[in-house]
């Protein structure tokens, strides 16, 4: 009889597909248990940041997986593969910007979560393990973020990896061996990039495992609360669903509003411009700084002259958190009921923000002294104050009115066309733009015939042909803009010893990009230069630069009534460079306003123009013509001479009798 009852109960439990699954894997019971989990009823919005951190982590993993599908972990291709994601992958710019901005917001959320724990005493008995696991999660986050910052292989990526990994050399006896092991060689190179890519992909799943332990430890004793008083009965709690789930949804919504506000309108605000410059081991940036979320600890590191002491201070600033359950001896958990503690805590929070700011400044006085004082207070707060409280400039850039600014910003195509003319007749004598193809000019209003004519005016070195020889041919629309020099050495020889930067990403590779470039072009002091032939310009970081004044009145002949003044030419060429750096800007803005047309699954709408060009423009052998490395203008061997000759011609026009430009 008992066996029959047991058999009947089993059959009832297995009724239907869901019953069959539930009997073998009680996932629905688990979800029901989670939804009915009792939570203190007095939790404020500061408690929402734990679940919000989980959402941010999931977002980073999803976007990271899609980026990994297109990323190439090789020092020769990493930078270009990131740009290919931005330009050629359907909505690649959206995925990449979401991942980059999401990392910053992830740290913002976690810092608020940590500050909440410090204020309300979340590290105190009996929740020490919740706190300890949280610290391990933070360490894993820092490692993941650092390795991810290296992957784009820009200047800050390379030099940041070099500086930070070198810190381990301060460890006595084994330091240098650790550094070589991290590098996979004797310098930061391809083995380093491959290791960092693998670990960057792995560590988020380690973070998920730690987060699960974090939640398990939390559920052992339940959540703390703002009062710091343990829950005594069920009347002091409410179920997680629907009350706190709805409350979490509010912060989730605000999080995504902030996230996509940055993604659509200021995606590079939280990044560093130097990371849009490809890594170069021979060129050290003036200031090597990490991402903003590492700046407080970086400020501590560099404020101390001794390397080993600085490294111990930096890591000790986080390790000291493990001692908090014993350093804070107050029987009152919540800072809400500790008025003296509250004052010191807010000074600590402001001091931490000050350290973040100091970490981004130059290593000079008074910033060094301020960093040392802030570091001193940081440690004093934990090891002295808490135990004692147991009882209770270059010139500012010119600000221009750009049509592409703002949430409804769009390109001024007429200005971009004029700007291209300025680039072609002036800037292209020295500067390359090797990420823009002639066919891309169709996006800003050039006709197909115009583009073919422009491309054909250049000679491109191609081959080998059937005889194994290289040959010159006229350019076609699918060719990329032709570089004026065959090598960096040739470029430096013609430009006062300095290599002119590629202009494809120059707007994004400079702080306040458009305003900075405009200010630089219009900021020369009447062509004055020093004894080293460096020209004075108050908008340049050092006040002097090797580039001669590139623009002069009437240097380019404009169609229509617009005068070719220095200001007008600078304005137009900046519009052109802005388009070159962010061709997706209009689409990004429209998508942000929910006005853009989503492409179909095959991306036909997005790449229609490119496919048409690829089919029309074929090389002599019948294959599609691609950019030939090393191709250049005819007769561009001495860029400086050509620019000076053009300037003299414009001055002669001014002095001709009856000239409209004569003042």
TrEMBL record:
Residues 17-227 form the Cytochrome b/b6 N-terminal region profile domain. Residues 414-521 form the Cytochrome c domain. It is a multi-pass membrane protein. It comes from the Eukaryota. Heme c binds at residues 427, 430-431, 547. Binds 1 heme c group covalently per subunit. GO terms for cellular component: mitochondrial inner membrane. PROSITE patterns: CYTB_CTER, CYTB_NTER, CYTC. Residues 593-663 are annotated as: Disordered. The main subunits of complex b-c1 are: cytochrome b, cytochrome c1 and the Rieske protein. Component of the ubiquinol-cytochrome c reductase complex (complex III or cytochrome b-c1 complex) that is part of the mitochondrial respiratory chain. The b-c1 complex mediates electron transfer from ubiquinol to cytochrome c. Contributes to the generation of a proton gradient across the mitochondrial membrane that is then used for ATP synthesis. Electron carrier protein. The oxidized form of the cytochrome c heme group can accept an electron from the heme group of the cytochrome c1 subunit of cytochrome reductase. Cytochrome c then transfers this electron to the cytochrome oxidase complex, the final protein carrier in the mitochondrial electron-transport chain. This is Cytochrome b. It comes from Trichonephila inaurata madagascariensis. The gene is fbcH.
